[in-house]
């Protein structure tokens, strides 16, 4: 056991995609950075649709060149009302070329993105990795003292809490979380198909939630199927052939014959909101700071913006000779992140509620809204741009 803390400018706790990106970005600012995270194989088959500036950010971290060949471009997105209700929305199609882009972004398997992030993290002289769990986080006046399960102690002036939903950092900072279970679950799996996806992602809106088929390289797609918990349990228990048939029916055979690949996972859905994103020298990043349902592919894209903003703010503070964990610096992080996170959580929540609602007026409003977006070019283009990144954002991504 070592009782003399090793001293760092910044420490990142948690080695998910948001934590690794934050660690690389902080180390690239020249801050002496510690990453406390277990090295473990990625445990599920989720993919991420990297939108807007996320790819540019990963390019700046020198991560994107290591994984771009494993990602599929997303050039168009279709929203299909599959509720079977009396009042249905017309199909809405968003095309990247309508806003002057080659693609909205790229879909990549999380395990491949993680391995590119891990590779880059291992190269940086300013980044020291501790392959361990964090046991205690104690904020003080001048620094935060962190103790790992193996006995290593270190201190940092600012901590990025990227330790996911049950965040120890959030608890140590004394930031309360408001959680709402959505009584929905997302089933994820990947499929091969007999027809090409033509880089179009298709989202079927069912009365239990969306079921989305997102392109992967080749004739493959990732599927996120949101349903009631009991329906999701039924689906995950099906045999491969039965699940292939069920997914093909749900996709209305637009991708031809589907073949399920090995590996399925179930995620109970919730919304988690915080009053504050930073306190007591701790800035929260990724799902430690916000949890939203997988609608519109926003979660990790927000997490990457957290990482980018924190690194920018720490770099500016250190260049000006400021303490990077001081209250004015944390306040800058808070105001950089608040509007983005709150507005996106609100919009995703409303989109989900309006889909699930049995109320005819709400269904009519939803159908009318989608009809307007579908038929009125300027509104559709605004929706596309806002879906990629908030328009008021001053920073690079
Ligand atoms: C079905 C589904 C589909 C999704 N699709 C998309 C999408 O297309 N686009 C998108 O942008 N987002 C998407 N998301 C959201 C995205 O997956 C999450 O936002 C993202 O994975 C969160 O990453 P993270 O690094 O914040 O958290 P995590 O991946 O949960 O990482 C947290 C890490 O911290 C570690 N940790 C926890 N406690 C400690 C401790 N005490 N010490 C050390 N380490 C610790 C954990 O082991 C873990 O490795 C989706 C989510 C779901 C459920």
Describe what you observe in this structure.
With 397 residues, the chain is of the alpha+beta class. The chain contains ten helices and 19 strands. The mean pLDDT is 92. The site of flavin-adenine dinucleotide has 31 residues, from helix 1, strand 3, strand 12 and helix 7. Flavin-adenine dinucleotide binds at residues 13-19, 36-37, 46, 48-49, 133-134, 162-164, 168, 186, 188, 224, 267, 286-287, 294, 297-301, 303.
Strands, helices and their partners?
Layout: E1 6-13, H1 17-28, E2 33-36, E3 47-51, H2 54-60, E4 72-74, E5 76-81, E6 92-95, E7 105-109, H3 110-121, E8 127-130, E9 134-139, E10 144-148, E11 153-161, H4 168-173, E12 177-193, E13 200-206, E14 209-216, E15 220-227, H5 229-236, H6 240-250, E16 258-260, E17 265-274, E18 278-279, E19 282-284, H7 299-319, H8 327-356, H9 360-375, H10 377-388
Parallel strand pairs: 1-2, 1-11, 2-8, 5-13, 11-19
Antiparallel strand pairs: 3-7, 4-7, 5-6, 9-10, 10-11, 12-15, 12-16, 12-17, 13-14, 14-15, 18-19
Helix pairs in contact: 1-3, 1-7, 7-8, 9-10
């Amino acid at each position: 056991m070592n009782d003399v803390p090793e001293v760092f400018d910044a420490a990142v706790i948690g080695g998910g995609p948001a934590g690794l990106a934050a660690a690389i970005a902080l180390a690239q600012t020249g801050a002496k950075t510690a990453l406390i995270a277990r090295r473990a194989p990625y445990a599920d088959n989720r993919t991420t649709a990297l939108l807007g500036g996320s790819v540019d950010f990963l390019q700046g971290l020198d991560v994107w060149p290591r994984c771009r060949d494993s990602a599929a471009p997303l050039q168009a997105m279709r929203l299909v009302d599959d509720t079977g209700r009396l009042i249905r929305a017309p199909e809405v199609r968003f095309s990247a070329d309508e806003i002057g882009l080659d693609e909205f972004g790229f879909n990549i398997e999380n395990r491949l993105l993680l391995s590119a992030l891990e590779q880059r993290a291992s190269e940086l002289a300013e980044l020291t990795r501790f392959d361990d769990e964090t046991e205690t986080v104690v904020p003080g006046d001048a620094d935060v003292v962190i103790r790992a399960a193996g006995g290593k102690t270190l201190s940092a002036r600012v901590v990025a809490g990227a330790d996911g939903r049950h965040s120890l950092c959030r608890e140590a900072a004394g930031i309360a979380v408001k959680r709402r279970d959505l009584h929905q679950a997302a089933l994820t799996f990947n499929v091969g198909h007999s027809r090409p996806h033509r880089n179009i992602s298709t989202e079927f809106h069912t009365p239990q939630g969306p079921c989305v088929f997102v392109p992967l390289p080749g004739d493959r797609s990732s599927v996120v199927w949101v349903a009631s918990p009991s329906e999701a349990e039924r689906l995950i228990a099906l045999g491969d052939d039965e699940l292939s048939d069920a997914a093909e029916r749900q996709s209305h055979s637009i991708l031809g014959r589907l073949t399920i690949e090995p590996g399925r996972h179930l995620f109970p859905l919730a919304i988690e909101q915080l009053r504050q994103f930073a306190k007591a020298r701790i800035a929260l990043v990724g799902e430690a700071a916000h949890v939203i349902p997988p609608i519109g592919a926003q979660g990790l894209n927000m997490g990457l913006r957290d990482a980018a903003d924190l690194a920018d703010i720490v770099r500016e503070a250190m260049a000006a000779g400021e303490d990077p964990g001081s209250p004015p610096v944390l306040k800058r992080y808070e105001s950089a992140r608040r509007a983005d996170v709150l507005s996106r959580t609100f919009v995703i929540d409303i989109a989900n509620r309006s889909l699930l609602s049995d109320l005819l007026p709400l269904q009519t409003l939803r159908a009318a809204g989608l009809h307007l977006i579908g038929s009125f070019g300027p509104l559709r283009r605004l929706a596309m741009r806002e879906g990629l990144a908030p328009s008021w954002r001053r920073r690079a991504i």
